[in-house]
Each structure stands twice: as structure tokens, then as C-alpha cells.
Amino acid sequence: MDRIRIVGGNELAGSIPISGAKNAALPLMIASLLTDDTLTLENVPHLADVEQLIRILGNHGVDYSVNGRREKQQEGYSRTINFSARNIVDTTAPYELVSKMRASFWVIGPLLARMGEAKVSLPGGCAIGTRPVDLFLEGLQALDAELDVDNGYVVAKTKNGRLHGNRHVFPKVSVGATHVLMMAASLAKGETVLENAAREPEIVNLAECLIAMGAKIHGAGTATITIEGVEALSGARVRVIPDRIETGTYAMAVAMTGGDVVLEGARPDLLQSVLDVIAETGAEITATNAGIRVKRNGSGIAPVDVTTAPFPAFPTDLQAQFMGLMTMAKGKSRITETIFENRFMHVQELARLGAHITLSGQTAIVDGVAKLKGAPVMATDLRASVSLVIAGLAAEGETTVNRVYHLDRGFERLEEKLSGCGAVIERISG
Ligand code: EPZ
Hints:
By secondary structure, the chain is of the alpha+beta class. It contains 14 helices and 25 strands.
């Protein structure tokens, strides 16, 4: 199993190209199921989760070609990929595939809307919490779907070939349920109004995609989204937005190690609350024509309290990385997680590097230390792993991060991007 070896202590200087967002690319890829035409997606990151979803969509009959070459997996940064779901050959998403990646449950929306039926395995447990699917099921029922849970599968059908628009209030904000309802309602008969919808930039990106495909959607990016269903959707060409979580991660890395880095192609409007918090810690953040410049000189890191919440607040997907940064702050900070009930697995691994963190329910109290010391650590999930990388870059001596496959799910060419800025970091295979 691959490992990442880091020798910490260097400041970061230079530029890092920001990739297309994983969490935007996945729903856009799934939207290809809504049309028999070709959906071309630009700026798709080359990540394990994307490759896995390509396999899952292939099971339903979605064909794909990368920059015109079928099957050839181009080694490189974000790519343009054509997806074509001319014939849906199977409306079942089996357990073996869905259990590997939770977002694949989202195929239920487009399959049901286009084919009038879908049988999708329940995703099952997940390292960061239970993550149920009740919000999806209630939403689809509001659109008149008939649902049954049988043998671990959700079996969904339309009553007479088509879903029906309705007003639906989500009892809780959910990114995935908003994606699914927006896709499903695009092909439903009549108007759907979604209230208490997620406002994440990835929702806006999906709405842009659906609109380019011919959907009639208003209000994406606000809590109320209105969708006037159409008979059919067509192909389109859409660009995946830059990854705000990757952007925030590297910005925090620079805030921790010190240095001066331009995050090329990053969009400040996608993570303003995060940039404000990083600035409060003492780093200088500037929006430039190229992206975002992050700079920190020798001054200490100021402690800042954060609470995760749906967009536009501080994202849960940057909580672990921020905790990494706070481990070397000059004082105490409180980090409260409100989205997932079990997203503190990085705490004990950061402690192996010398961090002082105590947990009190859903709040971590981080007592900053003057220095961290390198150690072997274990990656437990995607964002937790990268928090260990950030801490390793700032720690004295050598850190080895084991179970790197978590990182490969969501960070494109991490070692290359960081070593290009002066970090000592390498992948050790086997
Ligand atoms: C998306 O997951 C992201 N994944 C997650 O990123 C991210 O952490 C999360 O949104 C929150 O921002 C993708 O976009 C692929 P939710 P999602 O439904 O849609 C509860 C990463 O590291 N809930 O908004 O699954 C749920 O348990 C990943 O890239 C229900 O109770 O998240 C959670 O507490 C991890 N019932 C809350 O809602 C449901 O039916 C928000 O989850 C659905 C969700």
C-alpha cells in the first residue's frame, strides 16, 4: 500500500494549480443519465472517485471518452470527458458499487425521472457518520414516486411513467438530496419548488449544467429553487468549477508553514468565509487575476474558533485541515462540527505529531503548541488524511502518512503540487 513521506519544516513558495472540484464533477457526471445526448464536462479532475463513478455509470450504459479517446485514461491534470447515456441498459445500482462511494446513490434521481424506475442499493455506513437517506426518499415521494425498501435496496417507480412537480420543504439542508431532487424535478411534469435547499457552489454548478441541457431552473444558490419540468433534456458542454476544498486546504498549508503561494484558478467567491478565517489567523489573502495569493511571514498563527455549517458558512470538508493549522496556533481554539457526528478521527493522529486536542462532544479544543514532531500516522478518511499532510509539512522531521488511497479519492497530484512549492514530499509505493 502506498505511503506519503514528508520531511517538514520548509516554507511553501510558488504556485499551485487548483483542479476541478470533485464534489461538483460527481453530480454533473450523474446528470448525464438524464439525456440520450452527449454531455461534455470540462475540467474533470483525475481522481479515484471520478474513475469509480465512471465504472458505476458504465453499469447503467453510460459511455465515455476522454478528449476523444475512449477508455484511454490520460495521465494528467483535469480533463474534458464526454458522457453519453444513449441507452440505459440497467436501472439497478448494485450494493457492490454503491457501497464504495456514497454519491453513487444519487443516480436514483435521474434514473427514476428518465426511465420511470430505479433500484438502488442503500449506501450503508461510512467512516464519518451514519449518513442516512431519508431526505432523498421524502423528497422523491413528494414528487409522487412510489418507494419501497426491499433487501437493502430502494425500489422506486413513477406512478404513470413520470414524476410530478410539487412544493417540498427539506427538513434539513442536504447537498446530495438537493442535487437529486433538482435532477429529478427537471424531467417531472409541472413545477417543483424546493425550500431549505442547499446553497453550495456545487449546487449552482449542477443547475448551470441542467439549464445548459434545457432545464428551467431558478434560484440555485439560494434556499428556494424553482424547477419547471420539461419533456426531455439535451446534451451540453459544461465546465466543472475549481475545487474550493482543495483551495482552502492549500491556503491552510501555507498559513501553517509560512511562505507565499498563488493558488492558480481559485475563485475567492467560492470560499469567502474560509478565507476570512484564514486571514484572522494572520495570513495575508489577496485575490489576484491568477487566483488567490496566500502569504504568511514569520509571525505566529492566531487562534480562531470555527463552527462548521452549510454554505456559505465554514465547510465541514475543511474542518480537519483547519484543526491541523490550529495545532500550532498561539493559544486555544474551539472547533465545532455540526454536520457529521463522527468527523474527529484525525484528532488522535494529530496527537501523534504532538498536538494537544481534547474533545468535548462535538467540539474540539485545540491548545496550540510551539512545534509538532514528525511521526508515522494513519489516514482515516479523505479530509482527515490531508490534515495530516498539512501538519506533516509544518512538523519537524519525518512524517509518513499511511493508507494514501483516501487522499487519491480527492486530491489530484498532491505530492507534485506541494513539492513544486518547495515541500519535501514523496509517494512511496508498495
Ligand atoms: C456532500 O455530502 C459532500 N459529498 C460531502 O463531502 C460534504 O461533507 C457534505 O456534502 C456536506 O457539505 C459530495 O458532494 C460528493 P449532506 P452529502 O447530505 O451530500 C444528513 C468529502 O469529503 N442527512 O449535505 O452526502 C447527513 O447525515 C465529502 O468530499 C440526513 O440526515 O452530505 C449529514 O449530517 C464527505 N439524511 C447532513 O445531512 C439524508 O437523507 C448533511 O449531509 C441525507 C443527509
